[in-house]
Amino acid sequence: MTASVAILGAATPATKPAMLPLFERVSCGFPSPAENHSEAPLSLDELVRLREPSSFLVRAEGDSMSGVGVHPGDILIVNKAKEARHGDIVIACIGAEFLVKRLDLQHPDGPRLLPENPRYQPIVLQDGEELLIWGVCTHNLHSLEGI
Amino acid sequence: MTPSLDVTGRTICLCDINSAYVAMEAVFRPKIAQRPCIVLSNNDGCAIARNLIAKRMGVKMGQPWHELKGLHARGELEVFSSNFALYHCMSNRFNAVLRQHSPLCTEYSVDESWLVPPADNNLEPWGHALRADVLKKTGLPIGVGIGVSLTSAKLASWAAKTWARGTGNVVDVRLPGRLEKLLKLAPVREVWGIGGRLAARLEADHGVRTAWDLVCVERRLLRRHYGVLVESTARELCGEWCFSPDEGPEHQQQIRASQAFGRRIYDFDTIASAVASHVARAAAKLRRQNASAQSIKVSISTSHFSRQGEPYSASAGTAFSTPLSDSRDLTQAALNILRHIYQEGPAYARAGVLLGDLTGDRYRCDDLFAPAERPGSRQVMSVVDQLNERMGRGTVRFGRETASPGWEMRQALLSPRYTTRWEDLPRAR
């Protein structure tokens, strides 16, 4: 067992080939006055709190929410922990289906899900149906390319 | 002997996800929480997770999938192939929430974590708040067991699950009278590290039925007849720390890795690559619990269910002079065995590897005359394990394991990878 060689298999090269950083950090001149003021680059993850354990992404389908700028294919950032209040844009679950709608808690007939497009009707719970609010949409990521 | 219970020592908490894999699927399909539902093993072999409703329906752990197909076809049972990408991600979220409640958190398995709770004589309110927070943020229901050693916390979490309604899934054994009551109620086979076989021996030899009976047996006797681990287990149940979260209880005396092939296999090389990948998986698990194996066994067999061809099954093993944990040594040993038991002709359906006689590295004693461990073995293996953990299983492989083996998983009922693939995001209309 001594002095044996084991082949680990082909290695995939890293994205950057290993090189000596000849020109990075030339420290013989005057030190950069900016060095002590470096800051982390801005992060979208941080802005929308994507790394929170309660954040989930949901893809929007259909145009029932076009009035608030949610279009088919958009990516919604959903906070599962947030308590849904009247007027929030929520991911709701009726039956087996996920819906994105505005939550209406002030209608006399009970809670309703409102579309943001005049071509659609508000959704009222039928007898025996259960409404589950899965999460509250906090942001929408909409691509402006190819519009 | 009358045991003395001490609940004043260091406190530890075990959080575990109830029916974890089913619960993780149910986050994205809330309806299945109210229906009987199971998750199948790799390759859709058998049931490895069941929700309570499926349990009550009589679905057994490990029940073969082909026995359940009828129920599924009639729409009476929800079934998923195992979606490990999803489970891994949900497990990370579970742990992230736990860490918000206590920075001292050690992941023990995909659905269990140890947590050092704040100092308080009654931690049940804290446990209920923790449970509610995990549920709110991740959608996962958990149980919380608070104990005065790992083994007592583990038993507390068993009680939290068993008496879910009465306890609200939270049990603190330190409340007055609680530990004694729990020990008297818990069958000894439910104690961590006491498997069914050991439980039967304990009952036959000493009439031990409950955890309480176990702690009443003379310690010296336990040690002599069943070894130091069982003795430590009894001490732990009384509130004495013998195990640590990083080390695990070192109870497991063997690690098994086996899998049915997606199709029938005839040639040696394909079986060898399956065996090598089983060894890699088992060895990673071995190292995770800081243990080494003193023996290995390899088995291959044709299908139990098909009537085509001659049935054939064979297994053989070998013992090592020095306990081993290096994947390379273990693979070499496994392939040597495979060469002995492999026969040309049969349509092989399954291969398995069993690492046995595990010893914790802490208790390890080397053989003066045995060959020395490979130099740098620990470092190499630790790099391999870290890479595979971080970047997915199979990132670093050994020569024998192939990237796309001819025996990969059958996953007919796989759910989308909701949280790790752009194309698989849940959709809302």
Topology:
The complex is a heterodimer of chains A (147) and B (429).
Chain A: H1 44-47, E1 55-60, E2 75-79, E3 89-94, E4 97-104, E5 112-114, E6 123-124, E7 132-141
Antiparallel strand pairs in A: 1-2, 2-7, 3-4, 3-7, 4-5, 5-6
Chain B: E1 12-17, H1 20-28, E2 37-40, E3 47-50, H2 52-57, H3 65-73, E4 78-80, H4 84-101, E5 105-109, E6 112-115, H5 124-138, E7 142-147, H6 150-162, H7 164-167, E8 170-172, H8 178-185, H9 196-206, H10 211-216, H11 219-226, H12 228-237, E9 255-265, H13 268-288, E10 291-302, E11 313-324, H14 327-341, E12 348-356, E13 359-360, H15 377-391, E14 427-428
Parallel strand pairs in B: 2-4, 7-8
Antiparallel strand pairs in B: 1-6, 1-7, 2-3, 5-6, 9-12, 10-11, 10-12, 10-13
Helix pairs in contact in B: 4-5, 11-12, 13-14
Count of domain modules of chain B: 3
Mean pLDDT rating of chain B: 87
* Silhouette of chain B: globular
Succession of helices and strands of chain B: EHEEHHEHEEHEHHEHHHHHEHEEHEEHE
How many DSSP-defined strands of chain A?
A: 7
Helix content of chain A: under 10%
Distance between the termini of chain B: 66 Å
Can you list the strand order of the major beta sheet of chain B?
5-6-1-7-8
Identify the CATH architecture of the domain at 43-141 in chain A: Ribbon
Give the termini separation of chain A.
Answer: 65 Å
Largest interface in this structure: A-B, 32 and 29 residues
Please name the CATH topology of the largest domain in chain B: Alpha-Beta Plaits
| Oligomeric state | heterodimer
